[in-house]
Design a protein that fits this description.
The chain has four helices and eight strands. By secondary structure, the protein is of the alpha+beta class. The chain has a three-stranded antiparallel beta sheet. Strands 4-3-5 form a three-stranded antiparallel beta sheet. A two-stranded antiparallel ribbon has the order 2-6. The chain is globular. The termini are far apart. 19% of the residues are buried.
Amino acid sequence: MKLQKGGDSEMGPKHSKFSISILFIVPLLILASLTVPYFTTLKNGADIYLQSETITEQDTNENYVMLRYDVEKVPKERMTPSLITALMKPDDLGQTRVFGVLEQKGDVHQVVSLSNKKPAEGVYLMGWLAQTTEREYRQNDHYIVNFGLDRVYVPKFGHHVSADSVNDRTMTAHFKVLDGNSILREFKTN
């Protein structure tokens, strides 16, 4: 039996090369789409410095010091009226996307305004805030916002962290921030 040119036997290898090239190109494109925002933030992001809350015995375990940053604890006076309205509406997710506008006060940055509307300019962090009721809103003085800031392993205190070695201390963390996203660069103990 003789095969004809242009038949099925020639399409197989061409089709196979195309499929193999797609198998390599698609993952590379996905990887690039994940890394480009990271490197863009590192290159073009604003430098901000955030202070942790005082580290207590509850924040430590064998290997880690868990940091909560001051900017994550937002007084309700800094919340915009539109955010307060949005927080009290029932939502399927149970959370509202928020934007914390930052300003430098001394050596560190602080949240000066928390809104459910993306700022047109300036340095801000994007995060989530749990829904609330009117009663909870009246009772609370502040809200804890999840800005997705990196948690930190602190090797300076040795492998085993003693609560006494970190009690009543704070840390300052250096972040790069662009379009609400943050990348931790370094931190130091105060």
